[in-house]
């Protein structure tokens, strides 16, 4: 069982720990977290994302460039327009888990409520 955790990078000695810290660092900005949440179901352009997160397109573009360098988002070009989407499901899982942890910290874990009790 110990070999299983070592093989996937979940041991304290894992060489992926420093890279994981870089991912957390990339997600330590509220605008970037909001962008990831906005991209969870569909690809969007910079203009669409700017409206959703209520930030200027230039600022959104800078955040997206950082997320792209970190391979958290990827792009698709259609003519002059560039569309962004999440590169994989892991970023949204990280953000969702962080939000759920925040709900617990505030004593308001909405994610534990069932459809009948909500």
Question: What's the CATH architecture name?
Answer: Orthogonal Bundle
The domain tally reads 1
The assigned structural class equals: mainly alpha
Strand order of the largest sheet: 1-3-2
Assign a percent range to the helix content.
Answer: 40-55%
End-to-end gap: 39 Å
Low-pLDDT segments, ≥5 res: none
Radius of gyration: 17 Å
Per CATH, what is the topology?
A: Arc Repressor Mutant, subunit A
Look at the structure and name the CATH superfamily.
Winged helix-like DNA-binding domain superfamily/Winged helix DNA-binding domain
Let me know the number of strands: 3
CATH class: Mainly Alpha
Main β-sheet: number of strands, strand sense, barrel status?
3 strands, antiparallel
Shape: globular
* Number of separate helices: 6
Strand content: 5-15%
Order of helices and strands: HHHEHHEEH
Report the mean per-residue pLDDT as an integer.
89
């Amino acid at each position: 069982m110990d070999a299983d955790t070592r093989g996937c990078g979940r041991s304290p000695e894992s060489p992926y720990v420093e890279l994981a810290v870089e991912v957390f660092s990339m997600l330590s900005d509220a605008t970037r977290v909001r962008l990831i949440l906005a991209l969870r179901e569909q690809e969007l352009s910079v203009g669409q994302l700017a409206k959703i997160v209520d930030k200027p397109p230039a600022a959104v573009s800078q955040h997206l460039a950082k997320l792209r360098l970190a391979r958290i988002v990827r792009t698709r070009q259609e003519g002059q327009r560039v569309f962004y989407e999440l590169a994989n499901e892991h970023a949204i899982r990280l953000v969702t888990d962080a939000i759920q942890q925040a709900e617990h910290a505030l004593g308001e874990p909405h994610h534990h409520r069932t459809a009948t009790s909500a």
